[in-house]
């Protein structure tokens, strides 16, 4: 039996935000509609699983930081894992992501840049507020990122940097319009008497 020659892309996975929201909904249902003991057991189950997966991810990150010969990290694999939204979200959720918040915000914006261009205008770690600047579009005065686009950008940010709790949008100032130069015929010189 031979190994497959072409690798298939991994199946699409729910975002960390969607999974977290679903877990919260299920826990709420269990704690509100079940007896207190069942609700407490469900919450403990989630904690045990989170600890287990977190420990596994920590071990993976430890092994990624060095090659089998001990010379250093595996750059291609590390780059691929840190660029994967699901893996990045899990690492950030467990506080294992090796990049700081600003770098992860940059990754999030890069992941949607071709479709929804936006730039960071600053992150306040004390409040969790990220200010984003929507690129101005071709001079029409409207924003380059519409409502659906903004939601896509915000979802990418929450996946890569869950410590961002609020996103404030501002419109990038339009580039200065060039001065219009009027070209016309030279006024005729007044006739001189001879």
Summarize the structure.
This protein has 194 residues and is mainly α.
Q: Number of helical segments?
A: 6
Structural class: mainly alpha
What separation lies between the terminal Cα atoms? 108 Å
Order of helices and strands: HHHHHEEHE
**On the 0-100 scale, what is the average pLDDT?**
78
Radius of gyration over all CA atoms, rounded: 26 Å
What is the beta-strand fraction? 5-15%
Overall outline: elongated
Q: For the report, how would you describe the main beta sheet?
A: 3 strands, mixed
Query: Structurally, how many domains make up the residues?
Result: 2
Low-confidence stretches: 1-5, 138-143
Question: Percent range for helical residues?
Answer: 40-55%
Give the total of beta strands. 3
Strand order within the widest sheet?
Answer: 1-2-3
Write structural notes for this entry.
The protein folds into two domains: 14-98; 101-175, GMP Synthetase, Chain A, domain 3, CATH 3.30.300.130. It is 47% helix and 10% strand. 15% of the residues are buried. The protein has a three-stranded mixed sheet with strand order 1-2-3, with helices on one face. The protein is mainly alpha-helical. It is elongated and about 110 Å long. Residues 1-5 and 138-143 have low confidence and may be disordered. It contains six helices and three strands. It starts with 15 loop residues before the first helix and ends in a 23-residue tail after the last strand.
């Amino acid at each position: 039996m031979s190994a497959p020659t072409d690798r298939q892309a991994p199946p699409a996975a729910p975002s960390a935000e969607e999974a977290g929201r679903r877990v919260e909904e299920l826990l709420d249902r269990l704690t509100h509609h079940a007896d207190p003991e069942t609700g407490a057991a469900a919450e403990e189950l989630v904690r045990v699983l989170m600890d287990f997966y977190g420990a596994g991810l920590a071990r993976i990150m430890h092994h990624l930081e060095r090659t089998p010969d001990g010379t250093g990290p595996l750059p291609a694999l590390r780059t691929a894992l840190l660029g994967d939204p699901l893996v990045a979200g899990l690492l950030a959720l467990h506080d294992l992501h090796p990049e700081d918040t600003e770098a992860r915000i940059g990754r999030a914006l890069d992941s949607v840049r071709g479709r929804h261009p936006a730039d960071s205008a600053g992150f306040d770690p004390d409040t969790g507020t990220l200010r984003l600047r929507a690129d101005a579009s071709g001079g029409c005065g409207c924003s380059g990122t519409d409502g659906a686009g903004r939601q896509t950008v915000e979802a990418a940010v929450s996946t890569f940097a869950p410590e961002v709790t609020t996103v404030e949008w501002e419109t990038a100032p339009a580039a200065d319009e060039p001065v219009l130069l009027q070209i016309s015929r030279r006024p005729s010189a007044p006739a001189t008497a001879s």
